Amino acid sequence: MSQHHISDKPPWRPGAVFLLLAAVLACLSVLLINRGPLYYFDTGSYIRQGGVVLNMILPEDQTSGGAAVHDIDQDDTASGSRSLLYGIITAIFFRAGTLSAVPLLHLAASFLTIWLIARVARRHLNPSFETRSLVVFPVLAATATALPFYIAYVMPDIFAPILLIAIAALAVFGRVMFLWELLLIFGLMLLAMLVHPSHMAIGGLMVPFVLLVALLQKAPNRWRASALLILVVLMTITERKVFEFAAETVVKKEVTYTPHITARLIVDGPGLAYLEETCPSEDVPTCALHEALSWSDDPYRLTASHIIFERSAELGSFRLMTPENQRRVALDQKGFFMDVFLSRPFATTFAFAENAYQQLLRHSIWMTIPDDNMLENARRLARLQDDQLHLIQGGRLAADHSWIEPINTVHGAVYFCSLVIIAGCLIWPGSAPREMKQFTLLILAGIFLNALVCGGISQPADRYGARVMWLLPFCAALLILFLPRRGKRTDTGARP
After folding, report:
1. How far apart are CA 97 and CA 100, in angstroms?
2. What is the structure's pLDDT at 7?
3. pTM strictly above 0.85
4. Cβ–Cβ contacts within 10 Å for residue 297, how many?
5. 199 CB contacts (<8 Å, ≥6 apart)?
6. Nearest to 445 by CA among 461, 424, 427, 422
7. Quick check: 326 and 308 in contact, CB under 8 A?
8. How far is CA 161 from CA 234, 348, 449, 457, 461, in A?
9. In this model, does residue 73 exceed pLDDT 60?
């Protein structure tokens, strides 16, 4: 046995502390520069929905300065399109008057996930590495792009890349993880999937890729990752069913989901063609939306966001319908998709593929920067009282948007360089350990699935793209760190 025991260097050297502090400050840079979090109009919906649940558990007087007592909707429906868990989290911080602390939760979850993959990769591939280096340098690379904006963003988007890192780490290294590491990564995946419905869809679609990695490993415990991921997906589906049951039995409301798929199919063409061919018909509830779309001849109303959210007479449609017709259209979403797909399978498939492609090209951070209209919508949806308006403010970055385009240019250049590095490392034989290549390929698959789910079901939007694109420089930095070095050998045959 070698007389030299390989271990990390002392963890609290001044240089190590400085690098770690630099990584933390870089992640919080947008929060610090803005002097507060970034908001989206939907932030108000999460606060409102979480406040309703908190008031059921711990009622609060409306004059006490916290979240006012309001029902989710004025009719007999409750929205299932937003995460109840993330709503409760934001409502708790809102009640305490500390929404600025939400980014700290995002930071902690991000660092914990990255630290876990770094720890396991180091132990399994090359114990001579320092775990802190495998954390700090990829994080610093990612902070050159969108990561700091999503840390500061009071929306659940940061958990999409966290989910992808956790799934990829579990698939590649799950068979050699300790029990507490498996439990930790299981908890991170469960949290990430519960905070947004799109994350549940992405996690479910990642299952075949994880199964493929297991087939390629041919090692003991190779099915751990697949079993745990499937279990998490089943638990998130169960959570949805429990929420629907509780809403229907406790508050007597029927859970409906915002008809994103319906609007997407109409805007893309196959859905509109089907409605024009079928309507009017009492057997097709979505014909009510087709009629509402004819109330104005403004061509701009045929966008997914306008169909779903707009309330003006010129651009609105869904929100101008009666509550009963809105409910029927929302409940018909799955049936409408199947009818359209069966009648126009090729056109529907092409539309989804085109939307996914368009989504992959969008990575601007502009949607994380609120404008006055967005802030007003957030306050309205949160139903803030006059003495609470100060809790949601735009900050310094919202005062002038002229800096966004140059930042997008820099980010685009970093993403392109990262893709070149990743492609080189994946193609060049012996450039990086097999496990790190598998990890990176799973991340790339996750980025594509994020585009397919968000671009195909909702609509291509920069917000959905930028939230995961920082994974490109993150993976590129990891691959560079694991490149073979003269005089050193990367051990890919470490004991499980």
Report:
1. 8
2. 47
3. yes
4. 8
5. 156, 159, 160, 163, 192, 193
6. 422
7. no
8. 20, 28, 12, 19, 16
9. no
